[in-house]
Design brief:
Elements (H helix, E strand, L loop, with lengths): L4 H14 L14 H11 L3 H13 L8 H34 L2 E6 L1 H5 L13 E7 L7 H15 L10 E3 L7 E4 L8 H14 L4 E4 L7 E4 L2 H16 L6 H12 L4 H13 L3 H15 L12 H14 L16 H13 L7 H21 L8
Parallel strand pairs: 2-4
Antiparallel strand pairs: 1-2, 3-4, 5-6
Helix pairs in contact: 1-2, 1-3, 2-3, 8-9, 9-11, 11-12
Length: 384
């Protein structure tokens, strides 16, 4: 869908209205602009957030009310988002209780955990449920030991054992789209991955309960802000080298930074991101978050990198949510893992100058992972 730079600017400003960071449009949207912006919201799974922007812009008299048909259509989409969020929150609480009864500790990642940082949590579009699981009291276990116990339990509950990769496995219970994580994420360079896993292990005891129902009857655990400042950015980084990333993931990180109050916390996070080799990506992200959402300089982790930020934003806008709208060609699963491996490597060459360590270490990581994954799920050759 071709979109002019001027219309992208209107779209960014609409999102800034939703975040209460703007009082007027530089050029007010009119006519068909609204249909295109709704489509952009859908591409980036920001339908509910975009509608909040519309409400705020109309309230501040920064634009004329939308025509009735479009308002109704957009509102109906928002209601679907809100209903799905209520279901997801309930499912996350139920899942937490199920694992607790079976002797496992849990922490909900991304999705419902990050929704709590939004002004209207119910308007953040939900995806699947990602749950970090480990044996209760097993915080000092190695990742391999935790994985073995969690995989054994999960596959025992399923009619068909699932494939296992380094950090997670699918856990399709009663038609629910659930991913059980043994660790939240990883880095391709082994020395960086060791540091990340050490940090994540240290954050295990700092999970926090989050009440998701009136009266406090339903709850689940969420990561600390300190963990999310690192993990959410690493997750975005991972998707940059896989399917692609959309603005919803970037808005999640904006919400994490907005909730961070202390310079000391920001400095501590930046020191770790440096150790993970992510300074360049972090600086690019700071520029994008300012350009798209109007993030204030005082909330940034480091000085923005304009040049890399522009390239990153171009990539985000071309790919859309998880790369679903990337017209430059997607990675095909048709010809098996070897073909997909080659496609991914060729795709990621465009990131070589900006993020060389990640691009150069990725082939070794994937080859090792292909071999190692046979030990985790011997019944399945993992195509990854």
């Amino acid at each position: 869908m071709p979109v002019s730079p001027v219309l992208f600017r209107k779209f960014f400003e609409l999102l800034q209205f939703a975040l209460h960071r703007r009082k007027e449009f530089s050029i007010p949207p009119e006519g068909e602009d609204w249909e295109v912006m709704l489509e952009l919201c859908r591409h980036h799974t920001l339908t509910g957030i975009g509608y909040s922007g519309v409400e705020e812009a109309v309230r501040k008299k920064a634009c004329e009310p939308l025509r009735m048909e479009l308002t109704v259509a957009w509102k109906l989409l928002v209601q679907k988002v809100e209903n799905e969020n209520r279901r997801q929150q309930h499912d996350a609480a139920v899942l937490t209780e199920i694992f607790r009864k079976e002797g496992f500790s849990t922490c909900i990642l991304k999705g419902q955990a990050l929704a709590r940082l939004y002004e209207h949590p119910e308007r953040r579009e939900a995806g699947d449920i990602d749950v970090w699981v480990w044996p209760a009291g097993g915080e000092t276990m190695s990742l391999a030991e935790r994985r073995k116990k969690v995989v054994a339990y999960c596959n025992a509950q399923l009619a068909v054992p699932q494939e296992v990769v380094y950090h997670h496995m699918a856990f399709p219970v009663k038609g629910k789209d659930i991913e059980v994580h043994f660790t939240p994420s990883w880095m391709s360079a082994p020395w960086q991955n060791r540091r990340l896993q050490q940090f994540l292990d240290e954050e295990m005891p700092h999970r926090m309960p989050y009440c998701c129902s009136e009266g406090g009857k339903e709850f689940f655990y969420v990561p600390s802000l300190a963990m999310d400042r690192v993990f959410v950015l690493v997750h975005i980084y991972r998707h940059l080298f896989a399917e692609g990333i959309g603005l919803r993931q970037l808005l999640d990180y904006d919400r994490v930074l907005q909730a961070t109050e202390c310079d000391e916390e920001r400095n501590r996070t930046m020191a770790l991101l440096n150790a993970l080799g992510m300074r360049r990506f972090t600086a690019a992200m700071m520029w994008v978050l300012h350009e798209v959402f109007g993030l204030d300089d005082s909330k940034m982790l480091c000085k923005p990198d304009v040049r890399r930020g522009q390239r990153l934003l171009k990539e985000v806008l071309a790919a859309g949510n998880f790369g679903k709208y990337d017209e430059r060609g997607t990675v095909s699963h048709e010809y098996g893992s070897a073909s997909r491996f080659g496609q991914i490597m060729r795709r990621n060459l465009r990131f070589l100058t900006d993020y060389p360590t990640e691009v150069l270490c990725m082939p070794c990581w994937k080859l090792w992972h292909q071999w190692a994954s046979r030990r985790w799920s011997p019944e399945h050759a993992v195509r990854r």
